[in-house]
């Protein structure tokens, strides 16, 4: 059995620590693991399967002899370093948005479009967290009945804005309860001029705005959905509309998803049956007994939780559902590792071009 | 000028205290004010325009010589006492759901259907909080362009579940920050068997569920919208779909509203212009400068805040907006008092049948 030299790029963040954990629990046979991050984290000791591994500064040469890169740095770092990894023969699964919209880069939620993995040229992209969970929930419906349109409203957790934002949010919550003014320096978007408290509030801005009034997060949900489901980020066959809102929840995004199917033989019961048997989905749908997905259930789990499936009362081809998933796991680390597992399973991790040139490194140990 | 003997029924709750405050700031000429509540609150001293008024136990005879009742008790109490008030000649504006769906009872958001007030037979109903703010925001669009369908997802504050729920929510937030287990005995619905923490969570249940999978809150939004906009709670001309979610915010509900217009000459700019000039609406819509409605802005204000108005990217007759309002003011106390103001302005407060029989009470002082 081939074993893989794996590098985790961006190993010290909230997603990075989960990448290490998900890799440890995965089916990927690991020969050697490099943990890579920025210079300031170099030397930091982290744990992997009971071994201590010191974080290395990520440089182009960090990827010499690496087979598989699981990556969650900033887009700028991904843009700079992943081509270097590819040049050195590695196959990368990247969680940043740097390469998602390149036609040469498959954008993959394994439950949905794992076959697209075979089109990779060294980089596979992970979708945005809010898109990923919606794809896992809607794919069984698309496959069985076809989809004509999707309208989604998100309830997105603070951790989606990064570790510093999450810390700010918790500090604000305590300040509010202590009747103190809430400090706000990061949320909604660190790089934007205005900041607002998220604690006990709702902020209808995730990422910056385009001139058409949509936020970049909303743009991502619209175009990533099309690329994942139809292979083309501007495909007109499925119409998508999204509104993204940051809510005072630490982990796990909620989404109300309203969707129109092509095949009118669809019923809520049939959709529930599909979701019950769908890979990566846990159906929690028994309103009479107050059973439905909530962030407190989803946190720490790989699955996408689906519930509140019901028909629109005035259209026989329209349905509603409520979808919740851990944005740091299904929305990031787990989907990345899951893509890595699929690449391994399908033999799609490239053999580095210098594989036989450096016999000292035993990739197949 | 006619002055009115006013009674506030349910004077001691979160909405009750706001009814007193909104009445004090209103244009209703008050001759005499009775503050009514359950027996256990009787004798409690409350303030109105610098005067101390003691709460009285609400009984049928409390409404003798009352012209106008502003009411926010439980539905059961409303059902029992308001017919007694009507029998005694009073005109009632009721914030409970007891009479909303009676064909003889107008359901009124003054910015939207004030003319329906003239159809009252003693009782005017206030809509559900989540419906009210959506009506204030959508009426300018309906009037100018017609509406074909509405899809709404709500982000509803804890205070909508009552004062005890709000207190529980704040206690849970502190418990969570202290890493203690969160006590949960009330939310999402006090009378239902299961309870979940709301702090740092999302609960997709407001009120109990019907067998078709919709919650009663969702049912209300669908049928109240039809009654307010079309005069018939089952009117098919405007299709409505709603998903209602409780969010960890104390006061002010958010709503993503996706709507289809009849007249395709509508544009986002025209809709913004309408909202800017709409009564009871404050337009906060400048995404480039991070200006949009948030609960922290809306809390304590009478207006409905509207922003993020933009066109759907794939349909020329569909638009999105984000609507936020103080659920205890526009969603309850202020809309009740505003209905009272309209009744007064239009001469629709009935003259009690025993008006001239009891000359000792000077209603016109």
UniProtKB/TrEMBL annotation, chains A, B:
Pfam family, one: Semialdhyde_dh
InterPro entries (alphabetical): Asp_semialdehyde_DH, Asp_semialdehyde_DH_beta, NAD(P)-bd_dom_sf, Semialdehyde_DH_NAD-bd, Semialdhyde_DH_dimer_dom
Gene3D superfamilies: Dihydrodipicolinate Reductase, domain 2 (3.30.360.10), NAD(P)-binding Rossmann-like Domain (3.40.50.720)
Binding site for substrate: 156, 246
Keyword set includes Cell membrane: no
SMART domains, A to Z: Semialdhyde_dh
Binding site for NADP(+): 12-15, 40-41, 159-160, 327
Any one GO biological process: diaminopimelate biosynthetic process
Catalytic activity, reaction form: L-aspartate 4-semialdehyde + phosphate + NADP(+) = 4-phospho-L-aspartate + NADPH + H(+)
Keyword vocabulary terms for this entry: Amino-acid biosynthesis, Diaminopimelate biosynthesis, Lysine biosynthesis, Methionine biosynthesis, NADP, Oxidoreductase, Threonine biosynthesis
Enzyme Commission numbers on file: 1.2.1.11
Binding site for phosphate: 100
Family, as annotated: Belongs to the aspartate-semialdehyde dehydrogenase family.
Oligomeric and partner information: Homodimer.
Protein name as catalogued: Aspartate-semialdehyde dehydrogenase
């Amino acid at each position: 059995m081939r074993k893989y030299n794996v590098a985790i790029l961006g190993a010290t963040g909230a997603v990075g620590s989960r990448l290490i954990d998900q890799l440890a629990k995965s089916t990927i046979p690991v020969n050697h693991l490099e943990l890579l991050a920025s210079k300031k984290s170099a030397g930091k000791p982290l744990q992997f399967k009971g071994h201590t591994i010191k974080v290395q500064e990520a440089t182009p040469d960090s990827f010499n002899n690496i087979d598989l890169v699981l990556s969650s740095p900033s887009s700028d770092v991904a843009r700079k370093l992943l081509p270097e990894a590819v040049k050195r023969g590695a196959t990368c699964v990247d969680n940043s948005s740097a390469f998602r919209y390149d036609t040469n880069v498959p954008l993959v939620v394994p439950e949905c479009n794992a076959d697209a993995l075979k089109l990779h040229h060294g980089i596979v992209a992970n979708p945005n967290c809010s898109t990923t969970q919606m794809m896992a929930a809607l794919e069984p419906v698309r496959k069985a009945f076809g989809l004509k349109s999707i309208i989604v409203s998100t309830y997105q957790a603070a951790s989606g804005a990064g570790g510093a934002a999450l810390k700010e949010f918790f500090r604000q919550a305590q300040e509010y309860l202590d009747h103190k003014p809430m400090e706000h320096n990061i949320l909604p978007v660190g790089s934007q001029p205005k900041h607002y408290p998220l604690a006990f509030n709702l902020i209808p801005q995730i990422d910056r705005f385009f001139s058409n009034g949509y936020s970049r997060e909303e743009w991502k949900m619209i175009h990533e959905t099309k690329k994942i489901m139809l292979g083309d980020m501007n495909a007109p066959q499925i119409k998508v509309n999204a509104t993204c809102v940051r809510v005072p929840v630490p982990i796990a995004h909620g989404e109300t998803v309203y969707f129109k199917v092509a095949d009118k033989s669809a019923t809520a019961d049939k959709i529930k049956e599909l979701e019950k048997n769908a890979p990566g989905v846990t159906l929690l749908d028994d309103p009479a007994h107050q059973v439905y997905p909530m962030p407190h259930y989803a946190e720490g789990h790989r699955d996408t939780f689906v519930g509140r499936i019901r028909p629109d009362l005035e259209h026989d081809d329209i349905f509603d559902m409520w979808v919740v998933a851990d944005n740091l796991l299904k929305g990031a680390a787990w989907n990345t590792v899951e893509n890595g597992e699929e690449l391994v399973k399908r033999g799609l991790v490239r053999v580095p071009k210098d594989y036989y040139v450096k016999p000292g490194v035993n990739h197949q140990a």
